[in-house]
Design a protein that fits this description.
- By secondary structure, the chain is an alpha+beta fold.
- It is globular.
- It has one domain.
- Helix 2 packs across helix 3 and helix 3 packs across helix 4.
- Helix content is 35%, strand content 20%.
- The strands form two sheets. Strands 3-2-8-9-10-7-11-6-5 form a nine-stranded mixed β-sheet, with helices on both faces.
- The structure holds zinc ion (ZN).
């Protein structure tokens, strides 16, 4: 039967199903694993125009473009993710320059540590967004993400959370996010450097049950077991919080983090 939207059999048979909905054909090309706006500066102000990525072997190579991947998502799921990303692209503009923000944010200082509270954004939206990011990193076959892999049960739990709660329309997404009751219960900590920095791109499993995605603009930490969560990330991070918090790293702590991240990654690789 030749329907209008039906792909030629030979193409359809060669494509796998979408990893997110598992129902439709993964017809989408160039799906971003990490949204572009989260690693904007990786490709800015560098001459020649490139950024450094570090592989699990500690080998530094040039990163020419933001990692993209073909045939992991269907067009429908890509569209649902886009709605979420469009929303967060605006949120991150506000987070970067609070003066002109339409939404309310509260900056709290605890023991010299600045924490930004995103008071007017439903935390479920943040969880959807960051889980979408780490889930894509886990399912990605791109070499950059080859040490970023959850076990099947966790990957599936996050997939179901995303698949059940992503919406095709912006208004539905916002409305629905208020009703989300069950969020996978793990620890997430987003660190944003206070000032512009130089940096690296890396995504990896840096120790037992501990994962990091590292761009020039942000560092995202994710822990699948509470006991392995670094104290600061637990204290200033997020796990079913009423408001989502962003940890602001000053120059010194960001630099320390840079070094620690690289060191941990190399050490972990050696003990594995
Ligand atoms: Zn899909």
């Amino acid at each position: 039967m030749a329907g209008i939207n039906k792909l030629p059999d030979i193409l359809e048979n060669s494509m796998e199903n979408c990893k997110l909905c598992k129902e439709r054909i993964a017809d989408k090309l160039n799906s971003h694993i990490i949204p572009k706006f989260m690693c904007k500066r990786l490709f800015e102000n560098t001459n020649p125009r490139h950024s450094v990525q570090i592989s699990k072997d500690g080998i530094q190579t040039k990163l020419q473009d933001i990692p993209k991947e073909d045939h992991i998502l269907c067009s429908w799921c890509e569209k649902r993710l886009e709605k979420l990303e469009t929303y967060f692209a605006r949120v991150f503009v506000e987070v970067n320059s609070l003066q002109n923000a339409k939404r309310k944010y509260k900056l709290e200082i605890i023991e010299n540590q600045e924490i930004l509270h995103c008071e007017e954004i439903n935390p479920s939206l943040f969880y959807l967004f960051f889980y979408s990011l780490i889930w894509r990193s886990s399912v990605s076959k791109n070499i950059l993400f080859d040490t970023f892999k959850f076990n099947e049960a966790i990957e599936e739990e996050i997939r179901i959370f995303l698949n059940n709660n992503l919406k095709e329309l912006h208004s539905d997404l916002l409305e629905h996010s208020k009703k989300i009751e069950s969020v996978p219960n793990y620890y997430l900590c987003l660190v944003k450097p206070k000032n512009k920095t130089r940096g690296i791109f890396s995504a990896y499993n840096f120790s037992q049950n501990s994962y990091a995605i590292y761009t020039v603009d942000y560092a995202l930490f994710f822990y699948t077991n509470e006991d392995d969560c670094l104290l600061a990330h637990k204290t200033y991070g997020n796990s079913r919080n009423e408001t989502f918090r962003i940890f602001i790293g000053n120059d010194e702590s960001w630099k320390k983090l840079n070094n620690l991240v690289v060191e941990n990654m190399l050490n972990y690789k050696n003990v594995r």
